[in-house]
Amino acid sequence: MKILSDPRKINQLIRRAKRNGKSIGFVPTMGALHAGHLSLIRQAKRDNDLAVVSIFVNPAQFGPQEDLKRYPRPLKNDLALCRKEKVDLVFIPEDKMMYPEGFVTFVNVEGLSGRLCGAARPGHFRGVTTVVTKLLNIISADVLYLGQKDAQQAVIISRMVEDLNFAVKIVVMPIVRGNNGLALSSRNVYLSKSQREEAQVLFKALHLAKLMIRHGQFNSSRIIEKMKELISRKKQAKIDYVAIVDPKSLGPLKKIGRDCLVCLAVKFGKTRLIDNLRITCG
Amino acid sequence: MKILSDPRKINQLIRRAKRNGKSIGFVPTMGALHAGHLSLIRQAKRDNDLAVVSIFVNPAQFGPQEDLKRYPRPLKNDLALCRKEKVDLVFIPEDKMMYPEGFVTFVNVEGLSGRLCGAARPGHFRGVTTVVTKLLNIISADVLYLGQKDAQQAVIISRMVEDLNFAVKIVVMPIVRGNNGLALSSRNVYLSKSQREEAQVLFKALHLAKLMIRHGQFNSSRIIEKMKELISRKKQAKIDYVAIVDPKSLGPLKKIGRDCLVCLAVKFGKTRLIDNLRITCG
User: Fold this and answer.
1) Which of A102, A134, A167 faces B137 most closely, judged by CB atoms?
2) Domain ranges of chain A
3) How much is the ipTM here?
4) Which of B34, B37, B207, B215 is catalytic?
5) Contact A106 B111 (CB under 8 A)
6) Which burial class, exposed, middle or buried, applies to B258 when counting CB atoms under 10 A from its CB (0-12, 13-18, 19+)?
7) How far apart are CA B209 and CA B217, in angstroms?
8) Can you say whether the dihedral through the CA atoms of B111, B117, B118, B124 is positive or negative?
9) Which residue in A34, A37, A207, A215 is the catalytic one?
10) Rounded to a whole number, what is the distance in angstroms from the first to the last CA of chain A?
11) pLDDT category of residue B189 using cuts at 50, 70 and 90
């Protein structure tokens, strides 16, 4: 397993591999790898000649009041996991290599980036799409692996890849959950024991939505109301949003049709958790 | 010479050529080719195995009050010129292929895009950087050829290529001028005979700046004043800006140092002309 920090060097290495006919699967991460990331890495290994993982806590996607500084960075453990999964290349750039002095260029997916999480985190998705553009240019992968956990991110990046003609295929892998239903997240380490217990309500709320739809309730506001009621029973839960949206436009659905994305963001203490469930009917 | 309109098809063709070790030189144009464009095309032919020219009047870089509709589109002549120069591939996409319904992603080089021409043409450079990102992803060239005539555009694209890690080298070719000193531009066809005569003053004004600097005048505002005075003698001239700026940051230079860019935009009737001169001292 090769570990590189210089964008030019890894770009040269990958270009050479591509000239030799190798296909490249790419998993961009912020490190603090968990079983969710590993499912992406394993799929990248299965589908391609070479699997590339980037580990970069991207400052451009954190707001000034957010957790950039305390975001977990267990690098040794991350590298051990990558080695175990037989990752071929790990890219770990430094901040100043990615955003040198004078950096002023940003990629923005308008509209989509302001909705849902974008409303509470202005500039977040602009930071995501900018760094993913950079990473796609550096890694020039054939396939990009994303997690459904960050559903809005996956939609926005897919839109960007199409709009800007990136020659990369996107594969979105399902959410990996703990036994308690809690979606795996690098931020779960922030939770106290009681918060972690309370946070199980998120998956229960998503499941409630599914049941209600299965039983013929197609009025979104009714469902959202019941979900909020359920979540609000938990003392430490502070709802940011609960929404039922079109899976592509992320626009709110008043009436549920064939396909919808139920998604939510809820804070437990300082820790903001997100989760979602795609529900198709008929 | 192959002519293609489908982004995917030309992308596949170029990827195959690159796998076979061919180098790609790319000249993006809006058509209405003149000797300025041809100097770029010739350089692309000299430097690379394959020369690719795109012809696309990019709607995203025109303001609502601008000349998108009447912009010259002499396609037959353009293709004849490309054939004569032995261009290998011409890419002529349709608007709806480049900006399909639902397109929402834009690339913006902040700061630089608001200065000089950007002040009079809000959104213009965002349109330029967005389409160039798309074209670079579609063509994936080794070398991108730009004209110094559009000096701000060249600076902004260079900044973008560096910021977003595009693996492309940029070559900026000198301005080509007519016998009268007028910089060649596809928009010169709009000029009446008297406007064309008056427009010769632009190069004279740039030359005046050079003379003043050579004679030890390093105070920008003094030089700009004299340039404006000279230009204003022409009846139909309406100055948009005359500026002396740092060639990289495009920020105004009060005192001229080793290297400066003298640039201007002047309207003759409805036709907005730009020109510039890079001046190095000592």
Assistant:
1) A167
2) 2-173, 186-277
3) 0.96
4) B37
5) no
6) exposed
7) 9
8) negative
9) A37
10) 47
11) very high
Assign domain A2-173 to a CATH class. Answer: alpha beta
Report the residue from B11, B159, B164 with minimal CB separation from A133: B164
What is the distance between the alpha carbons of residues B199 and B184, in angstroms, rounded to a whole number? Answer: 11
As a whole number, mean pLDDT of residues B85-112 equals 97
CA distances from B233 to A97, B208, B264, B270 (A): 51, 14, 16, 18
Q: Give the span between the Cα atoms of A264 and A277, in whole angstroms.
A: 9
B37 is a catalytic site residue: yes
| Residue contacts between A and B (CB atoms, under 8 Å) | 84
Inter-chain touch B105–A163, beta carbons under 8 Å: yes
Q: What's the rounded Cα separation, in Å, for the pair A64 and A177?
A: 30
The amino acid present at A81, given as its one-letter code, is L
Average pLDDT over residues B169-186: 97
CB-closest option in B19, B105, B163 to A105: B163
Phi, psi of B267 (to 5 degrees): -95, 140
CATH number (3.40.50.300, 2.40.50.140, 3.30.1300.10, 3.20.20.60) of A186-277 reads 3.30.1300.10
